[in-house]
Specification:
The structure is a single chain. With 131 residues, the chain is an all-alpha fold. 41% of the residues lie in helices and 0% in strands. It has 5 helices and no strands. It has helices at 2-20, 68-78, 83-87, 105-111, 119-130. The longest helix has 19 residues, at 2-20. The structure holds iron/sulfur cluster (SF4). Iron/sulfur cluster binds at residues 16, 20, 22-25, 28-30, 37, 39, 105. Pfam families: DUF5981. Residues 7-78 form the Methylene-tetrahydrofolate reductase C-terminal-like domain.
Length: 131
C-alpha cells in the first residue's frame, strides 16, 4: 500500500506542479477556484482576495504578479468548467490543515481525511461555543 500511495503522490505532483505550481497542500480546491491554486497567493488566502489588490488587479506583495483571486474569478467565468464547480466558488473554505502538507490530495479526498477537523481546532470550537 505505501508503494501505491507514493505512486499517487508522484503522479499528482508530476501533473500539478508544472501546470499550477502546486505545493501539495494535500487539500486541493482547484475545482472551486477557477482552476487557480490559492496556495500561490503570497498570503495563501483560500477565501478570496485581501484588501490589498492594486487597481490594475495585481498583488500588493508581488506587484509583478496578477492577484490569484482576480485570476480565479476571471477563469471561473471564462473557462468551460462544470456548473457545479462554478457554484462552489463562493464556498467558505476551512483553514489549511498544515498536517496534510506534502500528502496527496487525491488520497485525502478518497479517504475523506481532508474533511477531518484537527483535534486542536475542535477543542477551540467547543471553547468558543461555551462562552
Ligand atoms: S490547492 Fe493544494 S493540492 Fe491543489 S494545486 Fe494548490 S497546492 Fe496543489
Amino acid at each position: 500500500m505505501p508503494k501505491l500511495l507514493n505512486l499517487l503522490l508522484a503522479v499528482e505532483h508530476g501533473m500539478k506542479k508544472p501546470v499550477w505550481d502546486c505545493t501539495m497542500c494535500g487539500q486541493c480546491v482547484l475545482h472551486s477556484t477557477g482552476m487557480t491554486c490559492p496556495m500561490t497567493c503570497p498570503k495563501t488566502l483560500r477565501n478570496g482576495p485581501c484588501g490589498g489588490v492594486r487597481e490594475d488587479g495585481h498583488c500588493e506583495v508581488k506587484p509583478e504578479m496578477r492577484c490569484v483571486w482576480v485570476k480565479a474569478y476571471d477563469r471561473k467565468v471564462s473557462l468551460p468548467l462544470p456548473t457545479v464547480w462554478k457554484e462552489h466558488y463562493n464556498d467558505l473554505r476551512p483553514p489549511v490543515d498544515m498536517q496534510l502538507k506534502g500528502t496527496s490530495s487525491w488520497v485525502n479526498l478518497i479517504t475523506k481525511r481532508d474533511q477531518q477537523t484537527p483535534a486542536g481546532w475542535a477543542k477551540r470550537q467547543e471553547e468558543t461555543h461555551s462562552h
